[in-house]
Each structure stands twice: as structure tokens, then as C-alpha cells.
């Protein structure tokens, strides 16, 4: 059937379903000639069986009438209008209203399209990797490359690692074997070295293009950090999240290597993550009871070597020199005392009038979106990190006063000065 006529009806009396059907067939007979006689249309399969759902509401009979139609669109519409003309069922007045004429072909087509999409996805998932098949055929077992060992540490490696212009550093022997299976014979494994990178790899990496290829888990991040600190690396590739290099297919390896990032950019990412973690730890520390803060400080105290003492003395001299250059109003110093433990930041203009107060966690976002020279000074109950210092300098901030200074401050931009609460209170 092509169409489905849906109509609602109401009869001013209690009747049966066959009474309604009889009224529809009887009152439409001969209205539009023999061609539209419902009984003959049924016999010719031009319309289907009439279906009725009916119930009683008090003394009335109400329900839904449905008639499938195999006529063309115009004939079906004409048939529907003819059915709507029925105004009596038995001795009772009735009303029939066409609610919808549904094109069954559209619904059927939508189901076909949806099913086709499902089947296409299934075919794609089962589609063979032709390149991998060709590689497997071309690499006969007797001529496939074997893992070698290099250096005093006897590190697992591919046979071409020493003569290749580019090398891939991976975590373990299984990674080397998996990469070699797909034709990557310029690999070498750290083989369990998580903190100290083997000297063989350090030397090997000096005159080559180096790609670090690590697992997509926490362990991979830790190995990557140590590797970037100790070895010349040009690019970094990662396995998909929570997957290991030894598990990857040829397609997944190629995709990971095509998406590798410059090592310097990855280094900055890791540094940014560390600074964010330091800020979170400082914020947490502010919420600890005083006894816990004292215990925590005692845990990290180490005896100072002579060289460390010299550095500390230089820092103290620089601090006093910096503080002597600052002119901070008394009411601002009072605010410094009051802001401790609140994890808030106060932004001032050049007249030391308060512009706004925000949470420390929102400070970087505020700086990032602030207009140039829109603020003069900021005091905040948090850590002055290199990232905050750089952005403040870019935005023309003259003074930053924080709870403490991060351990990785190496430079600053612009004329921004910085100090801690203890410097001024």
C-alpha cells in the first residue's frame, strides 16, 4: 500500500464497529460512480481492510478509523474527502474528520536508508587493510627483519636504527616487535629505563631526527617527561588513550605518527599542566588547618648546602631591593592581611581603587580577556607562576602580589614587579 488514511469519528449514540464500517461503505456507494465503490476497490486490492479502534464516552461512540490505499495521490485524497462526508451511523448523527494521509513509501524509504547506513558501517568495519595484506605477503617469514640489541645496555632495536636518519624511541621490546611487523625498522626501546635514559640512546639521538612514541596512559606521560628532559627529541607521537604501542594495528600506528607534535610544544603542555597542579595544591593548602600546614612544611625542609645558601642570600637581597621600590597604600596592605585564606584576587587601577574581586581559579581567564593596561596591580591568595607573570606583563600590569612565588620563575615580560604577602606585611 502507498498511503494510509487516518480519520477520527464521533457518533451521538452507542454503536458497534461494524455499524461504523457499514455506514462508511453504504453512504459512499455511488457518490463518485462505480470506480469509487469501496467494496469493488477492496476486491481489486486498491484499498485494504478498514481498521477501527473505538470506545464509549458516556452515550457517545468515538474512535479512529484507518484505511490503507493503493490508489494514486489524487485518488486517495478524493477517497478521503468522500469518507469525511458520512454523517450518520445507524439512527445517530456522526462526524468523521480526516486527521492525516500518511505516505507509507516515505516511512519505508527512511527505514531502508537507516538500515543501509548500518550495513555500510558494518562493511567498513570488516574492510581489509590492503596495504597491511600486501606488506605481509611481501615480507616472507624467512626474510623478515629480526630484533637486534645495541649498546652496553643491550637495548632492543630494529636493524636499521643506527644507519637511519630518523629513529623512533619506544618503551619496550614488545613495542619494537610490533612496529617492525609493519615495516618500521628504525626503532629502539628504553627497556624499563624510567628515570635515567640509557646513554646509548642519548648518543644515538644527537645526530638524528628523533620521534618519541609512547603509550597513551599515565606511565607514558611519565616516561615522556624524563625523555624530554634528558634527550634531544624532535617530535612526540602517542598511542590512543589507554592503549599501548604494542597493541596498535598498522593503521593506528600510521595515524599516531601522522598526528605527532613538535617536542617543544609538548614540553610546554607538560609545564602548563604542572603549573596548574601547583596552583591547585596551593589553593588546597590554604584550606588546611594550621597544624597540617606546619607538618607539611616540616616534611620538605632539607639541609642547605653552601651553594644553596648563596642562592638564598641573593634572593633575599633581590627581594628587599624589590620591596623598597614598591609604594603600596596602607589600605591595600590591610587588604593583603584580610585576603589570606580566601582564595580570592583583588584587581586595582592606577589610583589604587578596587576594580573587581574574583576567585583565584578565574584569574588567568580574567587576564587573558582583559584589555591592555586595564588594571595596575593585582593581589591574590595564590601562587605567582611563570604563566601568570607572563600574561600580566603582556597586559601591562605593573605589580603582582601573591601568597607565594612558584619554583619555576625564570623570566618576566614588560615592567611587571612581583612580591609575596610576607614581603609587605
Automatic annotation (TrEMBL):
One of its GO terms (biological process) is DNA replication, synthesis of primer. Residues 278-309 are annotated as: Disordered. It is an enzyme of class 2 (transferase). GO terms for molecular function: DNA-directed RNA polymerase activity; metal ion binding; poly(A) binding. Pfam families: Toprim (PF01751). It catalyses: ssDNA + n NTP = ssDNA/pppN(pN)n-1 hybrid + (n-1) diphosphate. PROSITE patterns: TOPRIM. CDD domains: TOPRIM_primases. Its EC number is 2.7.7.101. Signal peptide: none annotated. GO terms for cellular component: cytoplasm; DNA-directed RNA polymerase complex; exosome (RNase complex); primosome complex. Keywords: DNA replication, DNA-directed RNA polymerase, Exosome, Magnesium, Metal-binding, Nucleotidyltransferase, Primosome, Transcription, Transferase. Residues 165-241 form the Toprim domain. SMART domains: TOPRIM. HAMAP family: DNA_primase_DnaG_arc. Forms a ternary complex with MCM helicase and DNA. Component of the archaeal exosome complex. NCBIfam families: PRK04031.1-1. Belongs to the archaeal DnaG primase family. RNA polymerase that catalyzes the synthesis of short RNA molecules used as primers for DNA polymerase during DNA replication. Also part of the exosome, which is a complex involved in RNA degradation. Acts as a poly(A)-binding protein that enhances the interaction between heteropolymeric, adenine-rich transcripts and the exosome. PANTHER family: DNA PRIMASE. This is DNA primase DnaG.
Amino acid at each position: 500500500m502507498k498511503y494510509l488514511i487516518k480519520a477520527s469519528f464521533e457518533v451521538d449514540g452507542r454503536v458497534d464497529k461494524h455499524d461504523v464500517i457499514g455506514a462508511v461503505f453504504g453512504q459512499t456507494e455511488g457518490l463518485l460512480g462505480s470506480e469509487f465503490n469501496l467494496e469493488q476497490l477492496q476486491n481489486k486490492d486498491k484499498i485494504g481492510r478498514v481498521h477501527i479502534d473505538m470506545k464509549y464516552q458516556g452515550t457517545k461512540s468515538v474512535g479512529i478509523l484507518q484505511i490503507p490505499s493503493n490508489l494514486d495521490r489524487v485518488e486517495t485524497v478524493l477517497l478521503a474527502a468522500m469518507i469525511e462526508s458520512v454523517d450518520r451511523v445507524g439512527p445517530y448523527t456522526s462526524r468523521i474528520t480526516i486527521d492525516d494521509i500518511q505516505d507509507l513509501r516515505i516511512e519505508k524509504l527512511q527505514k531502508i536508508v537507516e538500515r543501509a547506513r548500518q550495513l555500510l558501517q558494518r562493511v567498513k568495519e570488516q574492510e581489509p587493510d590492503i596495504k597491511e595484506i600486501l606488506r605481509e605477503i611481501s615480507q616472507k617469514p624467512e626474510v623478515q627483519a629480526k630484533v637486534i640489541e645495541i649498546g652496553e645496555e643491550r637495548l632492543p632495536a630494529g636493524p636499521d636504527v643506527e644507519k637511519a636518519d630518523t629513529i623512533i624511541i619506544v618503551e619496550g621490546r614488545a613495542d619494537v616487535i610490533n612496529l617492525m611487523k609493519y615495516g618500521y625498522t628504525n626503532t629502539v626501546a628504553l627497556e624499563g629505563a624510567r628515570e635515567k635514559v640509557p646513554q646509548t640512546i642519548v648518543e644515538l639521538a644527537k645526530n638524528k631526527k628523533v620521534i618519541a612514541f609512547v603509550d597513551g596512559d599515565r606511565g607514558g606521560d611519565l616516561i615522556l617527561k624524563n625523555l624530554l628532559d634528558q634527550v634531544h627529541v624532535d617530535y612526540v607521537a602517542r598511542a590512543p588513550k589507554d592503549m599501548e604501542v604494542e597493541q596498535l594495528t598498522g593503521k593506528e600506528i600510521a595515524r599516531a605518527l601522522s598526528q605527532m607534535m613538535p617536542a617543544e610544544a609538548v614540553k610546554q603542555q607538560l609545564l602548563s599542566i604542572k603549573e596548574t597542579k601547583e596552583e591547585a595544591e596551593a589553593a588546597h593548602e590554604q584550606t588546611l588547618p594550621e597544624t597540617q600546614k606546619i607538618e607539611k612544611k616540616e616534611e620538605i625542609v632539607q639541609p642547605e648546602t653552601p651553594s644553596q645558601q648563596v642562592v638564598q642570600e641573593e634572593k633575599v637581597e633581590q627581594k628587599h631591593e624589590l620591596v623598597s621600590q614598591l609604594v603600596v597604600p596602607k589600605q591595600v596592605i590591610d587588604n593583603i592581611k584580610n585576603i589570606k585564606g580566601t582564595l580570592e584576587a583583588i584587581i586595582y587601577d592606577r589610583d589604587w581603587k578596587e576594580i573587581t574581586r574574583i576567585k583565584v581559579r578565574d584569574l588567568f581567564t580574567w587576564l587573558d580577556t582583559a584589555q591592555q593596561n586595564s588594571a595596575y596591580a593585582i593581589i591574590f591568595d595564590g601562587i605567582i607562576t611563570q604563566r601568570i607573570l607572563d600574561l600580566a606583563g603582556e597586559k601591562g600590569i605593573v605589580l603582582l602580589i601573591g601568597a607565594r612565588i612558584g619554583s619555576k620563575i625564570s623570566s618576566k615580560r614588560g615592567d611587571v614587579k612581583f612580591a609575596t604577602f610576607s614581603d609587605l606585611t
